[in-house]
Amino acid sequence: MRVGLNLVFLVPGETGGRETYARELVGGLRAERPDLDLTAFVNRETTDAGGFENLPVTVVPFRARRRHEWAAAEQIVLPRLVARARVDVLHSLANTAPGWGPYARVVTIHDTLFRRHPEFHTRAALAGTSALLRLAARRSHRVITVSEAAADDIVATFSLPRSKIDVVPNGVAKPAPIDPDLGSALRRRLGLAERPLVLAVATRLPHKNLGLLIEALAASSTERRPALLLAGQATSLDRELTAHARALGVASDVVITGRLSARELEAAYAAASCLAVPSLYEGFGLPVLEAMVRGVPVACSDIPALREVAGDAASFFGPRDPRAAAMAIDAILADPRLADSLRDRGRARAARFSWTAAARLTAASYERAIVTRSARTKTRFV
């Protein structure tokens, strides 16, 4: 089976969880289905960075940082290049997809944030996102999504039959062994000594709700207040978060970094007393599993997708309630037995998610898409 991977969205180092999904899924497909003939369709930024995971690539000549170019190239240029490559299936990995082409089409829609929280989008962005995702959902032969919660949202948003959607949970990669002194070195660099460290790993976007953690920090009593490390892709919200911490009197307790290298991120997990995920909305929540597989206790929002991913292996709080968040975090930090229990349950929970399983389910979706397209083609000629 010849499979094209639509990666025109991907700007290396800037695309957050969608990049993680793409890279890990490709690795899983290679391991689980070596019979698949994979070709990546990439933009100029990815080409400049040296391609993608040593796959054969076809360059779609535009730059993804220019979003209007991205949308136009995906709908007009990409379908012709894919047709020329004679693929059996085109898999678009990040929400949007071409609406036409003489091949089976599969799209992964990770979430419907634009519908659940329209207040986080400009009117123009909301209209464009809605139109592109609706086109992708309705014109693709199969829709993959990453959780049952996300599938429910997609059905409600686009009026799709549930039978068209394949739920393929994300996996989590086991970390390579690291130098045990990495975490200690990070603590020394941040001047933490033995002070507890709460870690949040997220691109600074409004729905990630990171201001709640600053408010939770301020609600903790001074004598047991932890430090907070906000790690992830920087955005224009960084200034607001810094100002928020200053206004609440906890600026010296908050460290905001940009996107960490793989080694730096491992150091942050090694140093962390817990991971906190205060999101208002998620389709999945990869950092939850990334913390669990490393034995880091998790406190997170009580929202459907995170409940589905974390099961009974996290401490939950309302994403609008900073005091509840402070209590959930403080309980982990103050009670070693609770922390140890969450570590054990978290490791067991994370073991249920693998990229090999994700790859197997994804390849099955490709096969269903081919059958669906073939049936539609025959119907047209009957």
Short description:
This protein is α/β, with parallel strands linked by helices and 382 residues long. It has helices at residues 16-32, 44-48, 67-85, 113-116, 123-139, 148-158, 181-190, 211-219, 237-247, 262-271, 286-293, 304-310, 322-334, 336-350, 355-380, and strands spanning 2-6, 37-42, 57-59, 89-92, 104-108, 142-145, 165-167, 197-201, 227-231, 254-256, 274-277, 298-301, 315-317. The longest helix has 26 residues, at 355-380.
Question: What would the keywords be for this entry?
Answer:
382 residues; alpha/beta; 48% helix
Counted beta strands:
13
Kindly report the average pLDDT value.
93
Helical content class = 40-55%
Task: List the uncertain runs.
Answer: none
Topology as a string of helices (H) and strands (E): EHEHEHEEHHEHEHEHEHEHEHEHEHHH
Q: In what range is the share of β-strand residues?
A: 5-15%
**Overall 3D form:** globular
Computed over alpha carbons, the radius of gyration is: 21 Å
Order of neighbouring strands in the sheet with most strands = 3-2-1-4-5-6-7
Descriptive report:
- This protein is α/β, with parallel strands linked by helices and 382 residues long.
- 48% of the residues lie in helices and 14% in strands.
- A seven-stranded parallel sheet has the order 3-2-1-4-5-6-7, with helices on both faces.
- Strand 2, helix 2 and strand 3 form a beta-alpha-beta unit.
- The longest helix has 26 residues.
- It is globular and about 70 Å long.
- The model has no long low-confidence stretch (mean pLDDT 93).
